[in-house]
Amino acid sequence: MALTNSYLQGVYETVQKRNPNEPEFQQAVYEVLESLQPVVEARPELEKNGIMERIVEPERMFMFRVPWVDDQGKVQVNRGFRVQFNSAIGPYKGGLRLHPSVNASVIKFLGFEQCFKNSLTTLPMGGGKGGSDFDPKGKSDAEIMRFCQSFMTELCKHIGQFTDVPAGDIGVGGREIGFLFGQYKRLRNEYTGVLTGKGLSYGGSLARTEATGYGLCYYMKEMLAYKGTSFEGKTVAISGSGNVAIYACQKATQLGAKVVTMSDSNGFIYDPNGINLDVVKDIKEVKRGRIKEYAERVPGSVYTEGQRPWGTKCDIALPCATQNELNEENAKALIANGCKFVAEGANMPSTPEAVAAFQAAGVFFGPAKAANAGGVATSGLEMSQNSLRLSWTFEEVDQRLHDIMVNIFHTCITAAEKYGHKDNLVMGANIGGFEKIADAMLAQGVC
Ligand SMILES: NC(=O)C1=CN([C@@H]2O[C@H](COP(=O)(O)OP(=O)(O)OC[C@H]3O[C@@H](n4cnc5c(N)ncnc54)[C@H](O)[C@@H]3O)[C@@H](O)[C@H]2O)C=CC1
Ligand SMILES: O=C(O)CCC(=O)C(=O)O
């Protein structure tokens, strides 16, 4: 599909002019505007009230200096960001990413996507995102702590449990959230649910660690059931070996599939016997090492340097590493190898050309903002538990996560069908996420 609606073309041209040199942000906006064409045509009040012009412009974004001292006593300086994109349906909510590739474009694309994702969960959360170009790779625990404390020293002026609630993303897990929480508490002298993904001893939720990967598999389970099949006996290719990839691998295996690949930014491993997650967790969560060590430890597995896993024969692909990690050529290789189902665990891992290739070949494709919404949904459940001053059991949180993912799938199916694009989950996710935000913006006047 192309962007042919003249109103939306104008909105997109303004985005290009206002955000030059921001390819990821432009890519994310283009896809959403493309999907929303039938909605804008059916609902003239959206144009009259400037909803589209407003929804593509962040409410607020700030950038700040993050100075910290390394283990040699030298001062280092990184750049911090937070975008507070849209608060129509709740306080800003979204993760913090620590990776050298972080810049304004990456943070804005992630914040924009987060608005629609959070809306799909049905929980009251607006969209935000943040991070820094700090590279945690090879840093000591003490360096990570000093960086996190410096980052929070500025961030704490702008967030709060009713304003903006950050969480983890690439490079931010339990260790970092702990350091960030400690510094917020110290500076603000308040003990509140200002972050999610917290440790269980200080207000975290059971199942938040597993939630994005598990949620991805619950979404895929519905995709498979809709087409009359299941995970049982299927071969799955996963990219990444971080939080999302690890728990996607665990749940897919529990549901009867065999996961044969995982990766990191250096290369991928192939294990024809099914990935041994204990080994991956030891490498990635304990030793913080590289995935190639897996092939050194597990007989029969192979490591391929400098490649992604998409040339592997599989029924299901779950990209769980990073944006634009699966291009048109990769999509064609997956299709040629018999892959029939794809759901995105990472944010925007497939390029637009890859998505088009999947859809043209009849591959059932679940986009990130629906398929990986289980993480933020469970963050929403962590916020609920913090407000209630109660903790739910693992089973209770997992059941709620499951039900939310099933509901998101059916929201996508219904929204796509309503606007004449049956089974197009990209259209369904964008439309389903958009309508609640648009209705809230219309109700709240020009703001
Ligand atoms: N953690 C969460 O709850 C959620 C994460 N996501 C998305 O899932 C993806 C993965 O995040 P996490 O697992 O949390 O992060 P993580 O830091 O635990 O793991 C990131 C993984 O991606 C790999 N990676 C990073 N850059 C890469 C590159 N350029 N090429 C290949 N691999 C690369 C890393 O080696 C690692 O395996 C990201 O796109 C993130 O935005 C989406 C929803 C929620
Ligand atoms: O749990 C959260 O608040 C954010 C998760 C996240 O960053 C994402 O959904 O991309």
UniProtKB/TrEMBL annotation:
GO terms for molecular function: glutamate dehydrogenase (NADP+) activity; nucleotide binding. Keywords: NAD, Nucleotide-binding, Oxidoreductase. PROSITE patterns: GLFV_DEHYDROGENASE. GO terms for biological process: glutamate biosynthetic process. It holds the Pfam family ELFV_dehydrog. Residues 205-445 form the Glutamate/phenylalanine/leucine/valine/L-tryptophan dehydrogenase C-terminal domain. InterPro entries: Aminoacid_DH-like_N_sf, Glu/Leu/Phe/Val/Trp_DH, Glu/Leu/Phe/Val/Trp_DH_C, Glu/Leu/Phe/Val/Trp_DH_dimer, Glu/Leu/Phe/Val_DH_AS, Glu_DH, Glu_Leu_Phe_Val_DH, NAD(P)-bd_dom_sf. Substrate binds at K93, Q114, K117, G168, S379. The keyword Nucleotide-binding applies. The keyword NAD applies. It comes from the Bacteria. NAD(+) binds at T212, N243. This is Glutamate dehydrogenase.
